[in-house]
Amino acid sequence: MKIFVTGAGGQLGHDVTEELRGRGHIAIGSDLGGDCPLDITDAQAVERVLTQTRPDAVIHCAAWTAVDAAEDEANRQKVRLINGGGTRNIAQACKKLNCKMMYISTDYVFDGQGESPWQPDCQAYAPLNVYGQSKLEGEKAVFELLDQYFIVRIAWVFGKNGSNFVKTMLRLSETHDTLRVVNDQVGTPTYTPDLSRLLADMIETDRYGYYHATNAGGYISWYDFACEIFRQAGKTVRVIPVTTAEYGLSKAARPMNSRLDKRKLAENGFAPLPHWQDALARYLAEMK
Questions:
Q1: Among candidate residues 58, 137, 144, the one with its CA nearest the CA of residue 101
Q2: Are strands 186-187 and 220-221 parallel, antiparallel or unpaired?
Q3: How far is CA 183 from CA 209, 222, 229, 256, in A?
Q4: What are the residue ranges in the chain where pLDDT is below 50?
Q5: pLDDT digits (tens, 9 = 90+) for 12-39
Q6: CA–CA separation, 6 vs 90, rounded Å?
Q7: Segment holding 212, helix H or strand E
Q8: What gap in Å lies between CA 193 and CA 179, rounded to an integer?
Q9: What is the distance of C-alpha 163 from the center of its chain?
């Protein structure tokens, strides 16, 4: 297959591109820079590049992901142009070319209330922040325009490329012996090499629809995740659990409930991701 990957310079897009190439697919990685630069907010450029490339599928990883910065008045329109409008541009080009599309979405499209895991086909949306609203706009564009689509919601992503919670905790452990970490936001981490394998499995099929994809191992808090990071890394750091209100440093409201139900993966023949603790161990080994 020939597969076009947007955001190939990012944390997930890089690993997706490498996974596809490792399977023998022609993976064309695109970003604002690099070998195939593309500004996804430019509808004419998107149509021109995809028409010239003529892929069998597009995996759309490109996004504005700076959640707090998205709340700034100066950035709000840009965030929506990228995550909403840019995704619509990709979807329109895929419709014209009759190729399948995979859109990487997020737990932030939900309101984060309650304790029940969110179902993939749940339509009860009420995003708490600009980032979540913009990603939901992208979801709606894909759903409205296409039949051959995958919408895959992920959460708490970490990988070798880019910044993430694990890197932040390890960096802070070099200068702090005590850290405050929230314990009332609950979800599951997602390791990009594991997720990339799943996304490649999915794009090779026509089992379209909404999916949730995080590592296995149940639901934990950021506090739990931090404690396990330091345990596996052999770091002596005192971690103090605090509520989101007590932490109080974020501009953007965060969902408390980021539990994503992943059973639809197995129901459709896709192998679940490994346990998050196993994924963390492999990540720490890779980063040494």
A1: 58
A2: antiparallel
A3: 32, 6, 15, 9
A4: none
A5: 999 999 999 999 999 999 877 666 889 9
A6: 9
A7: strand 209-212
A8: 28
A9: 13
Structure tokens at 222: 């950021």
How many CA atoms, within 13 angstroms, populate the side-chain half-sphere of residue 6? Answer: 27
What pTM was computed for the model? 0.94
Provide the pLDDT for residue 35. Answer: 66
Return the DSSP state at 31. Answer: B
Catalytic (active-site) positions: 131
Give residue 118's region: left, alpha or beta (phi > 0; psi -120 to 50): beta
List Cα–Cα distances, 126 to 73, 100, 109, in angstroms: 20, 27, 7
CB atoms inside a 10 Å sphere around CB 274: 16
Q: Are 214 and 37 in contact (CB under 8 A)?
A: no
- Rounded to 10 degrees, the C-alpha dihedral 105/146/60/28 comes to 160
Domains of the chain: 2-163+190-216+259-274 (3.40.50.720)
Q: Rounded CA gap, 250 and 128, in Å?
A: 13
pLDDT of the residue at 123? 75
In the numeric block, the tokens 């679940």 are attached to 272
Kind plus residue range of the DSSP H or E element containing 134: helix 130-145
Measured in Å, how far apart are the chain's first and last C-alpha atoms? 34
Pairing of strands 57-60, 2-6: parallel
pLDDT for the residue 288: 81
